[in-house]
Amino acid sequence: MAIVIRDAEVITMDVRTGSTPVTRSIRIEDGVVAELGATVRVQDGDTVVNGRDRLVCPGFVNAHTHSWEYLAKGRYDNLPLELWMLYSYPILGGKPLPPDLVRLRSLLFAVESVRSGVTTLVDDVLETPSQDFAQLDAVFDAYDAVGVRANISGHVINRPFIDTVPYAAEWLPSDVVDQVRATPLLSAADYLDFSQEAFRRYAGRADGRLRYMLAPSGPQRCTDDLLAGATELALAHDAECHVHVLETKTQAVTGREFYGTTLVEHLRRIGALSANTTLAHGIWTTDSDIATLAEYDVCVSHNPVSNLKLGSGIAPWRRYHDAGVTLGLGSDGCSSSDTPRLPEVLKAAALLHKVTEPDHTAWSTADEVLRAATLGGARSARLHTDIGSLEPGKKADLLVYDLNTLAFTPRNRLDLQLVYSENGSSLRQVMVGGEIVVDDGRVTTVDEEALLAELRDRLPGIQAEQDRVESRNTVFHEAFERMYRTCAAEDVGVHRWSGPPGAS
Ligand SMILES: [Zn+2]
């Protein structure tokens, strides 16, 4: 039995009509778009949906996020990355989250995501103090239950955290330094073994809807053999290898101090760049870095809301486009942007780059933003042959908006209104692989009310633990504050803040 959506306004994102809405019908069969055209086949037993007054577009790909942070939503403000991380990813005193809480967290995270139009999550799952299979199983189980598509990582940091930034270790009390350096860390072989096992364990999970992804945290946070080994393993499985690179000015200073070059150039030298690599952020890249990323066909996940919240800087959107680097859009975690919803990210991406230069012909366009939120994210997730556009043969991951809403009234340019006017409130149906996971604005697959109630019950215990760990990590604050300010005042040869170069 098929579902036929008749005579809807459709943004296909295919090569012919791109982001321009056209009136089309869609036949969905066995989870894929079987036909798309002015007319399509209708057979007895098909479910036929009247698509008039509806806008249909490909589901959004959240190309960079961390479900771990869901429980820290709304806890922090006005902290730059290096200080914020001390509390959101504590160095000392963290206890492993029990798998049932990981599952609850992941369910809520996925529910909020799909309700905003996200059909694919690139979830870089970092558990502190470290990750095990019971926790990773819980994430896979949760996304299986909700029905979302996802790349799910084993995230790894295998250097003592205080040694992943310049200067700070010298300014910390020696007993604290000793304690951090004594914390056991994975070797490259440990992580690659874990990842091999994960590929076996999750192969074909949920009909291939859920995939394991490699995620060495960053070039300054992982050993060279781990970074190179993860790149190789990702290629062997055609999986994504997801790496945080040059999110902040501190990291630009780090490249110079640790390797005498940029972090992108360091990754190139050690063999850790490939077409399966996605850099999260990529803000403080030089023109030469951008050329290297284009040469190796590396993608970049752009996360403007998180970058604004943490004051990280403004990624060079136009330079990436000019160089031919594929961009995806990400919300980043729920502590650095406080929501996994993607409409805000689309709007921020469309707006932010208009203040970077007076030449309005170089500003970000709604078409580029929609492309990044769909095809770009799909490419970065290594899913571009399956999703990212609506065309015959691709998975039926799609969004259905009601056009009789305030956001779409008056109907002028639906593509512009989708980016600038719509905030998720007009979204009626969300389909992943032909399955309806949101209907009439409600998640159909899990009991959202019950999940919210369960979290409310558990919250006092969760928050008491967060408070305890937070106070344990204030010991790092002063040295990291000094390090942050020192790096902010240095000249790294690129400028991604709106103040004068070198301003701290
Ligand atoms: Zn991140």
Automatic annotation (TrEMBL):
Keywords: Hydrolase. Residues 55-437 form the Amidohydrolase-related domain. One of its GO terms (molecular function) is hydrolase activity, acting on carbon-nitrogen (but not peptide) bonds. The keyword Cytoplasm does not apply. The lineage of its organism: Bacteria, Bacillati, Actinomycetota, Actinomycetes, Pseudonocardiales. This is Amidohydrolase.
